[in-house]
Design a protein that fits this description.
Layout: H1 3-9, H2 13-35, H3 46-50, E1 52-53, E2 59-60, E3 96-101, H4 109-121, E4 126-130, H5 140-143, E5 154-157, H6 162-175, E6 191-195, H7 197-203, H8 210-219, E7 224-230, H9 232-235, H10 241-261, H11 266-270, E8 273-279, H12 283-303, E9 314-318, H13 331-344, E10 349-351, H14 368-385, H15 399-421, H16 425-430, H17 433-450, H18 492-506, E11 512-517, H19 521-536, E12 541-543, H20 553-557, E13 562-566, H21 569-585, E14 590-594, E15 609-610, H22 616-634
Parallel strand pairs: 3-4, 3-10, 4-5, 6-7, 7-8, 8-9, 9-10, 11-12, 11-13, 13-14, 14-15
Antiparallel strand pairs: 1-2
Length: about 625
């Protein structure tokens, strides 16, 4: 079949619409049957009823078809750069596996150099170097000894010493001999001085003066970019994907204004920026976010009159906010998904933080070398065994991914244009608008986590009470190598409850609740399991005596202050009121039920219900009050 034949036989718009309507009618029939109503009595269209509203404000539809097909986005490395900034990426290398060095502190330059050379021999292809914690700007010559700076991209993170580090690095680069292999500079080999004064001004990270950073950028030679617009300053604080992207672009435009005011032309100014993006374990959002950022930045460059210079060079970093302190091994899975999304989204560099990066250094149980190796190998498995880097923009053309890219780009553009109407990034930051917007997003995210509609495996779901205790207050720490002062980890509120319960357990018995299962194991097992896991998320253990009747309650009640009756609605009808009365007569201070209050048959109801959808953080906090502080006071 020829191309013309394929084109001639392609479905027409009416055909696609007719096929969609046929699906919609069939879906309506299924939905109506499940609700025991007629199809015309459904409250909305099947598409609306089956769509998912994300925390980003985007809508994920249940079905994407050729009806959703969009125009081609061009080739990688060409405007509008949706498909990648690099037209000549080496598909045998893929994205750059960028490893971070210097976080451990109290390290010598020679030891860091040895670690860098060892990592390079084992798959690392990009370097991110932290200075100021055992390493100084003058140590860069030793740290980078043996590294060919024209082949391996280097990013600096020197905080308040950024200007001195930048000048030291530029001098070193100027004096360093070229590699024995010749290679044209590409997006993959861009060097970054890592100066990020505008985004750090929001997060509170130590940074440099904007005017000094601009002056360095005005003198920085081709192949090196001085300014890093760091989205992790926003993502760690709880920003949504559109907020992170929109604020990245807003800060970048502010830098362009400064650079052009300093005498650079637009094309040169665009060539002084790199972009860091925090990626989490929302796989498709990670893919679409990087593609959307490149689309939006290309549009900015087009408006500025230099569309061909609008390729956003991106460094994706696994988001510290998604990492947990409890059951940290699960972080390996989260990081794998995040790296997968970043790689398929076309990031030029990807950094996977250590699986234990959310823990203070003195509480980590693995060596730094092990954590580095696992983080590095996470990417190498994706690149060398799954071969993800061998295709540029492999998600391109997917109706869902293209649609999500467009939605995120539009949402990010709305954030950017709103900031512009407020007078630009500095004005929006100074009057607190950025802080208020991200605070609202964080509150919404915290509510979803508290109600367990956004599950955190190993913490809010399937917790392990046998884990070693952590000191109270650890869950809120920002004393971490890659943390900002506004770090708000997703799991922190549940982990704070765990810390509190562990502290109580260290002075006596772990806080526990008595289960009162009624009926056979087959009847109550689902709810006893649910309650056990819910309570464990707050560090509370359970005592389960097995199926029990009302006249056995007194024998098991002991000194328990809280009990939970667990059974089916039918069993509550038969035995619930008697078991409730017996528990109260035995001195149990608070009697709860598993399931909905509507299932309880009598006017004398339990003191609360543990069910799907409750505010688990508030409930567990109240129970810990009952079982620890208040209980001790009453005693």
């Amino acid at each position: 079949m020829t191309v013309s034949d394929q084109t001639d036989n392609a479905p027409t718009a009416p055909d696609l619409q007719q096929a969609y309507q046929k699906w919609s009618a069939a879906a309506a029939g299924v939905l109506a049957k499940s609700r025991r109503v007629e199809a015309d009595a459904l409250p909305d269209t099947p598409e609306a009823m089956l769509s998912t509203h994300t925390g980003d404000g985007t809508v994920i539809r249940p079905l994407y078809t050729r009806k959703d097909e969009t125009d081609e986005n061009g080739l990688p490395g060409r405007f509008p750069f949706v498909r990648g900034a690099d037209a000549v990426r080496d598909v045998t290398t893929g994205w750059r596996v960028t490893e971070r060095f210097g976080d451990e502190g109290d390290v010598t330059p020679a030891a860091v150099n040895e670690a860098i050379l060892d990592a390079a021999a084992n798959g690392t292809s990009g370097l991110w170097i932290r200075l100021g914690h055992g390493l100084a700007a003058d140590d860069l010559a030793t740290v980078l000894d043996g590294v060919y700076l024209d082949l391996m991209p280097v990013t600096l993170d020197a905080g308040a010493d950024g200007i001195a580090a930048a000048r030291a690095y530029l001098a070193l680069r100027e004096a360093r001999p070229e590699s024995p292999y010749t290679a044209s500079p590409t997006a993959a080999t861009v060097q970054s001085l890592g100066l990020s004064p505008l985004t750090a001004a929001y997060s509170g990270r130590a940074t440099v003066d904007v005017a000094e950073a601009t002056a360095v950028a005005a003198e920085t030679p081709t192949g090196v970019r001085a300014l890093r617009v760091d989205g992790t300053d926003f993502s760690q604080a709880g920003a949504t994907h559109p907020q992170q992207l929109g604020l990245i672009v807003s800060a970048a435009v502010e830098h362009i204004r400064d650079l052009t005011a300093a005498g650079l032309d637009v094309e040169a100014a665009l060539g002084q920026l790199t972009f860091a993006v925090g990626v989490d374990d929302d796989q498709f959002a990670g893919i679409a976010a990087l593609r959307a950022l490149r689309r939006v930045w290309a549009r900015v460059a087009e408006v500025l009159g230099a569309p061909d210079a609008g390729a956003a060079v991106t460094h994706a970093v696994t988001d510290l906010a998604m990492l947990t302190q409890r059951d940290p091994w699960v972080n390996m899975l989260r990081s794998t998904v995040a790296a997968f999304g970043a790689g398929l989204g076309g990031a030029d560099q990807v950094t996977v933080l250590g699986y234990d990066a959310a823990l203070p250094a003195d509480q980590r149980t693995s060596s730094a070398s092990f954590s580095h190796r696992i983080a590095r190998n996470t990417q190498l498995l994706l690149l060398e065994e799954s071969n993800l880097g061998r295709v540029l923009d492999p998600a391109g053309g997917s109706w869902f991914v293209e649609s999500l890219t467009d939605d995120l780009a539009a949402a990010a553009w709305d954030v950017f244009t709103t900031v512009e109407r407020l007078g630009g990034y500095r004005s929006a930051l100074d009057d607190g608008w950025i802080e208020r917007q991200i605070a609202e997003s964080l509150a919404a995210r915290d509510e979803a986590v508290a109600h367990r509609t956004a599950a955190v495996t190993g913490v809010s779901e399937f917790p392990n009470l046998a884990e070693p205790a952590r000191p109270v207050g650890t869950s809120d720490t920002v004393d971490l190598a890659t943390a900002t002062g506004r770090l708000a980890r997703v799991a922190r509120r549940f982990e704070a409850l765990r810390d509190r319960a562990d502290a109580a357990a260290a002075t006596g018995a772990r806080p526990n609740v008595l289960l009162l299962p009624v009926g056979s194991i087959a009847e109550h097992n689902g709810r006893t399991t649910f309650v056990t896991n819910l309570l464990a998320a707050g560090g509370i253990d359970v005592v389960n005596p097995g199926p029990i009747s009302a006249d056995q309650v007194a024998d098991v009640a002991g000194t328990h202050r809280v009990a939970v009756v667990c059974g089916t609605a039918a069993r509550y009808e038969q035995e619930g009121p008697a078991v409730l009365a017996a528990a109260r007569a035995a001195g149990v201070h608070r009697v709860l039920m598993a399931g909905s209050e509507r299932e309880w048959p009598a006017a004398d109801v339990p003191d609360g219900a543990l069910r799907v959808g409750i505010d688990a953080v508030a409930t567990l906090t109240d129970l810990l009050d009952e079982l620890t502080d208040r209980g001790s006071a009453d005693a």
